[in-house]
Amino acid sequence: MTKTYLPSVDSIERNWYLVDATDQRLGRLASEIATVLRGKNKPTFTPHMDTGDFVIVINAEKIDVTGRKRSQKLYRRHSGRPGGMKTETFAKLQARLPERIIEQAVKGMLPKNTLGRQLFTKLKVYAGSDHPHQAQMPQTLAIQTIPGGQH
């Protein structure tokens, strides 16, 4: 009879990765980030455990989308009060809070439970090219999405 491998909490190795979002496609970038956060790229992946790494995303304001999503894609949030729905297009949200676009895209690709909320805390998104995580010595993670395209 074969036994299922279960990594101990001490044996899980946590790395920090740096991703530059300049001219990357939103969905393709988000799915790669979600994979690394979840730990699916590691041989020690366990579905019910947090075996993933930390991801730092810089230049969030330079993320790219294809087609007419810049003017047609809507982001909704609700205050919790009657009539409290607020909608915003991609372009307006990118001008106001560019970090939220990547955060929402990645959050939607993580599990919708306690584990997913725990994994989401390991994502750090910054609008500019500088970040406060130099001490963790992040490795650069090269993610190749489709280069170029129509805007």
TrEMBL record:
GO annotation terms (biological process): negative regulation of translation; translation
Molecular-function GO term, any one: structural constituent of ribosome
Gene Ontology cellular component terms for the protein in this record: cytosolic large ribosomal subunit
Keyword entries, A-Z: Ribonucleoprotein, Ribosomal protein
NCBIfam families linked: rplM_bact (TIGR01066)
Described function: This protein is one of the early assembly proteins of the 50S ribosomal subunit, although it is not seen to bind rRNA by itself. It is important during the early stages of 50S assembly.
Quaternary assembly: Part of the 50S ribosomal subunit.
Family: Belongs to the universal ribosomal protein uL13 family.
Entry protein name: Large ribosomal subunit protein uL13
Gene of this entry: rplM
